[in-house]
Amino acid sequence: MLQNPAWQATDDLTRAQLAMFHCLSERIALTPDDRRRALNLDERTWAAWQDFQEDGPLPGEPPLPDMLRRLSETAFNLASIADHRAS
Length: 87
Fold this sequence. Notes:
By secondary structure, this protein is mainly α. It is 74% helix and 0% strand.
């Protein structure tokens, strides 16, 4: 467990963003490989982020600010697609 409260908050936020991304991905039936491609990650990097989601260590690549940006942009696009399909 992380000792610094700021790092713990960052860790929690990142895991929550990944969970939201996966939830939106499920709503529009994206496969795991489609999710990886949507975030523009190679297979090794995607596996590291999947491991992180399962309580593993925070991956170094892409850097956290970049990964959070990728997640937010992609989640916005997925939410738009899900809303369009629902109407």
